[in-house]
Structure formats: structure tokens, C-alpha cells
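Hey team,

Filing this mostly as a record. A colleague (T.K.) asked me to run one chain through the structure pipeline before their review meeting, and I want the input and output archived in the tracker in case anyone asks later how it was produced. No errors, nothing strange. Just documentation.

Input sequence:
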Amino acid sequence: MRRKIVAGNWKMNGSRDLVEKLVGYVRSGVSSLDNGVETVIIPPALYVRDVKALAGDQLAVGVQNVACWESGAYTGEVSAGMAKDCGCRYALVGHSERRQLFAETDAAVAEKVAQLLSQGLVAIVCVGETLAEREAGQAEEVVSAQVRKGLAGVAGEGWQNVVVAYEPVWAIGTGKTATADDAQAMHQSIRRVLKDMGAPAEETSLLYGGSVKADNAAALFAQPDIDGGLIGGASLVEKDFVSICQAMPAGPES
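Output structure:
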């Protein structure tokens, strides 16, 4: 059964004041929901323990990135084991900002996925095309390659801890959003790629990210192959984030 997930990626934003203001509100707001959504907060690593202390059983916590290595002389890096030790259940891998600003390759994504799975953590693997690639008709080709290369080392029970988040680069932080139909088409394509890779495609959760807001979440989440969202800016506004969680349709999991 596919999990319904709404994850808030704070990126390089936040403070202890924000943690205290937002986490309790979100925890209270989702505790009464009966739509089966799993709510995840992914703050900067320095605030993980603060968020975890306030999250209770209603919220899961994740990190925005992990190292390719288990441990060692890698100043500034955070290992998957450290994330687990601090109570994280999830981690982002291959976000477009990591790919574009820090030259993260598909090979590095695959190594990070392996680290997370070795610790029993859930990898939210981000994929997505640029505007130029979409306009050139290469969107599905680009995303397919990212999925295949980034998840090349996953096998067997490891697939249970893989979530794929489709985030068209041109829609991240721009206010532009793929239409529900366009997003559904890409999610359907990703599910076909996963099936071709031998993954349990119909059981793998696929999330949409890219300027998801309270007023467009319901239309996106209503699509048959979209199992939730990876939320950026709106996750920093407690009322908006709770509204997005509320937009997940009720009923059995996909």
C-alpha cells in the first residue's frame, strides 16, 4: 500500500523561534486528520533535535541531505547514521538545488541512497527537469534517467524505503506549478520506469513538489499517481502547511 506523505522542506530557513511556533501548531492541526497522511518536517540539520522534541507521534522528522560516506574526515558532512541517531526517519536526496548549486550527480545520489537504506531510513529521491529540457521535449527522458541512475543500487526490501519526489526545476520557488494533468503524466511515467526496473511500482509513493500551495494541493493530490507533496515555502507558514495536509483526500491508501 502506498503511503500518503506531505513533507515540508524548510531549506536554509528557520530558527528556534520558528520551531517553537510552527511544530506544535502543525502537530495539533494534523492530529485530528483521518485521511491517512503522514506529515514530515525536514528542517536544517541544526534544528532536527529541536523539531524532534516537539514532534510527538504525529510528525516524522527528516534531514535535507546526507553524505556519501558512513563516517570519516569529511568536515561539514552529516551521515545517515547520525540522522538516524537523532531520530530522523526520512532524508532528502538529489534535490535540484543540490544538483545545480553543488554539482551533485546521479552517481552521488545513488551512493547517498545506499547509505540511507543501510540505516533503515526512507530516502525521498528528488528528480525533475529544467524549463529548457521541458521545452525541448526531453522532460520524460531526463527524469527517467535520474530515476534509473539514482536508484540503480536498490533491490529487494530496499524498495520499501524509497519515495520519489518529482519536482520540475522550473516550478521550484517560482510560483509556477505544473498543471495537475502534467504532474500526473510525469508521475505515471515514473511509475512505468520503476516497474521496468523491477521495483514494486504500484506500492512506491510518488510525491509532487514545486510551488504547492493550499489552493492547488487538492487538485494535485486527487491524481491517481500522486501520493502527496514535497512542500517548500508553504511549509514555513503553519496554517498553509496544515491546509495542504488537509487537502489529501480521505479514504484507503492507493
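Quick notes for T.K.: The first strand starts at residue 4 and ends at 9. The mean pLDDT is 95.
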